[in-house]
Write a structure and sequence with these properties.
This protein is α+β, with helices and mostly antiparallel strands and about 350 residues long. A hairpin with a 5-residue loop joins strand 3 and strand 4. It is built from 16 helices and five strands.
Length: about 350
C-alpha cells in the first residue's frame, strides 16, 4: 500500500514529466502566416532566424517576417511569450511592457531578437521615437544588423510634425554622427528622410538628395528601403540639376527589386527628356519609357511609359508614332485615370496643331 509520501513523490514525478513533455513540444513560429509547430530555434545570424522544423529541416526567416514566436525554455521566456501573445492579439502597448522586461533578462542573440520585436510593438503604438531607438539598436546588433533593420523601418507614421517624430529624427542624427558603416548608414538615412518627409520638414529635400546619391549595399536592398528611395529620388530629380542623378538611377535600375524597376526607368526617362538638347538626346530619353511601356504590359505603370514615349515623339515631330502610342496608352488595362486624361489632352493637342497647319 502506497504511503502519502510515496503518492506525493509520484505526483511530483508526473508533474515533472508533463512539464518535460510540454518543453518537448518545441517552439511555435509563424512566418508570414505559415505556422511551424514543434520547431526549435537554432540561431540568429545577419537578421536571419534559423529554426529546425518538426521534420528536421532547418529553415530561415527574416526577423521582419515573423508574425509570432512562442519559445520553450522555462520561466526565462514567460515575459517574452506573453508579449508575443499580446502583440498577436492586437495589444502592442502591453506587449511592449513585457518585451522590455524580457530584454533585461536576455542574453546572446535573444537580445537582438527581442529588440526587433520591440521595434514592431512601438511602431504599432505609433511611439516612433521609441521604435527608432530600438531600430538603431537592432541595426547595430551583432546578430541582427543592417539586414534586419532594413526590414523593420517604422511604417505607422503620422503625416504631420509631432514630438515623437522630431525626437526620432534627433535619435537618427546622433546615430549618423557616430560614423556608422554603410549598411547601417543606409537604414538610418532612409528612416530619417521618411520621417522628415512625413513632417513636411524643409530638411527633407537635402535628405532626399543625400539618400539618392548613396550606394545601397546588397544586405539592405529591401522593399522597405526602395519604397523610400523611390520617393527620395522623385524629390531629388525634380530639381534643376537632375542630370547629376542619372548614374544613381542607372545603379538603382540594376540593383532594385523588380517591383520598383518601372519607377526608376520612368524617372530616368523624365530626367533625360527634360534635359534633352538635341534629337539624339530625345531618342535616348524614349528608351526607358519604351522599356516600361512594352516590356511591362501587365503593370499599370506601363501606360505612363507609353505616354512618356509619345511625348518624346511629339518633340521629334513624329505625329503618327505619337498617336499610335497615345492610343495604346488610353486603351491600357488598369491605367491610372490621370495618365489616360493626359494622353487624351496630348492627342487633342496633336489634332489641333495639325488642323492649324492645314
Amino acid at each position: 500500500m502506497m504511503t502519502a509520501k510515496t503518492i506525493r513523490l509520484l505526483a511530483g514525478s508526473m508533474f515533472a514529466f508533463l512539464m518535460l513533455g510540454a518543453d518537448a513540444r518545441g517552439d511555435q513560429i509563424v512566418v508570414r502566416g505559415e505556422n511551424f509547430r514543434d520547431a526549435d530555434v537554432v540561431s540568429l545570424t545577419n537578421g536571419l532566424l534559423q529554426f529546425r522544423g518538426s521534420d528536421g529541416t532547418v529553415r530561415s526567416a527574416h526577423l521582419g517576417d515573423i508574425d509570432l514566436l512562442i519559445a520553450t525554455g522555462g520561466s526565462l521566456f514567460d515575459d517574452f511569450n506573453q508579449a508575443e501573445r499580446f502583440l498577436d492579439a492586437g495589444d502592442p502597448k502591453k506587449a511592449a511592457i513585457r518585451y522590455k522586461r524580457a530584454l533585461r533578462m536576455s542574453t546572446d542573440y535573444w537580445s537582438d531578437l527581442i529588440a526587433a520585436r520591440l521595434v514592431v510593438a512601438y511602431d504599432r503604438t505609433m511611439e516612433t521615437d521609441k521604435s527608432v531607438q530600438q531600430l538603431i539598436r537592432v541595426t547595430r546588433g551583432k546578430w541582427a544588423g543592417p539586414a534586419a533593420g532594413a526590414r523593420l523601418i517604422p511604417q505607422n507614421l503620422p503625416d504631420r510634425r509631432t514630438g515623437t517624430l522630431a525626437r526620432a529624427v534627433r535619435e537618427l542624427d546622433g546615430a549618423l554622427a557616430a560614423h556608422p558603416q554603410l549598411g547601417q548608414s543606409v537604414v538610418f538615412e532612409a528612416t530619417r528622410y521618411e520621417l522628415l518627409r512625413r513632417m513636411k520638414d524643409e530638411l527633407a529635400v537635402s535628405a532626399a538628395v543625400r539618400l539618392s546619391a548613396t550606394r545601397i549595399p546588397a544586405e539592405v536592398r529591401t522593399e522597405q528601403v526602395y519604397n523610400i528611395l523611390v520617393s527620395a529620388m522623385l524629390v531629388a530629380t525634380s530639381g534643376g540639376d537632375s542630370m547629376r542623378f542619372v548614374a544613381d538611377l542607372d545603379r538603382a535600375i540594376v540593383e532594385c527589386p523588380a517591383k520598383h524597376l518601372p519607377d526608376f526607368l520612368l524617372m530616368k526617362g523624365e530626367v533625360l527628356f527634360r534635359s534633352a538638347g538635341d534629337r539624339d538626346d530625345l531618342i535616348r530619353a524614349s528608351w526607358p519609357f519604351l522599356r516600361v511601356g512594352i516590356q511591362m504590359a501587365d503593370d499599370p505603370r506601363g501606360a505612363r511609359g507609353l505616354l512618356g514615349a509619345a511625348k518624346v515623339l511629339v518633340k521629334l515631330e513624329d505625329g503618327a508614332g505619337a498617336r499610335r502610342l497615345l492610343g495604346e496608352c488610353i486603351a491600357f488595362a488598369n491605367a491610372d485615370g490621370s495618365v489616360v486624361a493626359e494622353a487624351q489632352q496630348v492627342l487633342e493637342g496633336l489634332a489641333a496643331n495639325e488642323n492649324s497647319n492645314d
